[in-house]
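Example for tutorial group B:
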């Protein structure tokens, strides 16, 4: 049975005969009669009792009509879903984001997003920024929010928030005791206490390692963590330093921007180059940017 056959047999049953069904279907009566005989020949049974008017489905016909109705209903549902996808009211968004940003942004952004697009299924992947970019390249996620220097071939970037790189210092460190928070410093001024570091896979770790190498520094490492929140809390409670973006400090400890450092690492949305962005992707981009705007607009 195909959709055409299902629709024709259902119409014959609804109209009570071939002649009326042919008129409703805008086909000739001989053509519809031939199609009915062909289906019955293939099945080896009659679908309608033709000795009565209007036609009455046989038991085999009732079984066929139930299956035909199920097929037509399923096709109607599919057509409606495809239409919603074409209109970008329905779909799937595989979203990549760091755990730290996820905890801060998604509770603000998702309520409005879900309200606007209740039929979009959201799949969340949390990882370090460097890994997120690779996941976009490999097609594991459709869109990622990452703190990155960008420039990876095959990816397109949209700036969400500029970041300032510096040193987060616990209040009891020599640096915090000597200088007010917000003072620009040289990296060498933060070598008198141990460092807490994010593990490899986070873009800030790439920046940190490069800066230490460029300056010929080998600081004492207190510990490494994959969790930015844990790293920040340990830093401010254990008398340590941590190299990070100002946006990650959450108002804790003291923050000292690095003097003379031209930061190229900013919070961006990234997706595959040339990828068309559905309306729901454009909406979540706007909502994230709006939530990080200084005035919230």
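The residue assignment follows.
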């Amino acid at each position: 049975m195909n959709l055409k056959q299902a629709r024709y047999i259902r119409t014959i049953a609804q109209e009570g005969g071939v002649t009326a069904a042919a008129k409703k279907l805008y086909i000739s009566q001989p053509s519809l009669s031939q199609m009915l005989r062909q289906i019955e020949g293939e099945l080896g049974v009659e679908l309608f009792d033709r000795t009565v008017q209007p036609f009455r489905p046989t038991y085999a016909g009732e079984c066929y009509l139930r299956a035909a109705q199920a097929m037509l209903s399923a096709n109607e549902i599919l057509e409606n879903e495809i239409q919603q996808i074409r209109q970008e009211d329905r779909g799937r968004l595989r979203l990549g984001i760091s755990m730290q940003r996820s905890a801060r942004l998604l509770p603000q952004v998702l309520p409005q997003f879900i309200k606007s697009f209740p039929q979009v299924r959201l799949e969340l992947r949390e990882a370090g920024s460097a890994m997120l970019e690779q996941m976009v390249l490999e097609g594991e996620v459709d869109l990622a929010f990452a703190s990155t220097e960008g420039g990876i071939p095959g990816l397109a970037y949209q700036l969400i928030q500029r970041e300032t790189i510096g040193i987060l210092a616990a209040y009891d460190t020599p640096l915090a005791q000597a200088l007010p928070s917000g003072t620009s410093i040289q990296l060498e001024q933060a070598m008198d206490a141990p460092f807490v570091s994010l593990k490899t896979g986070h873009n800030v770790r790439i920046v940190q390692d490069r800066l230490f190498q460029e300056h010929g520094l080998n600081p004492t490492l207190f510990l490494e963590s994959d969790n930015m929140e844990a790293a920040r809390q340990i830093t401010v409670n254990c008398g340590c330093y941590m190299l990070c973006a100002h946006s990650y400090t959450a108002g804790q400890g003291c923050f000292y921007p690095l003097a003379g450092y031209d930061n190229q690492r900013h919070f961006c949305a990234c997706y595959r180059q040339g990828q068309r962005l559905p309306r729901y992707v454009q909406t979540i981009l706007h909502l994230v940017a709006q939530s990080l705007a200084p005035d919230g607009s």
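The chain has a mean pLDDT of 89. Compare this with the pattern of hydrophobic and polar residues in the output above.
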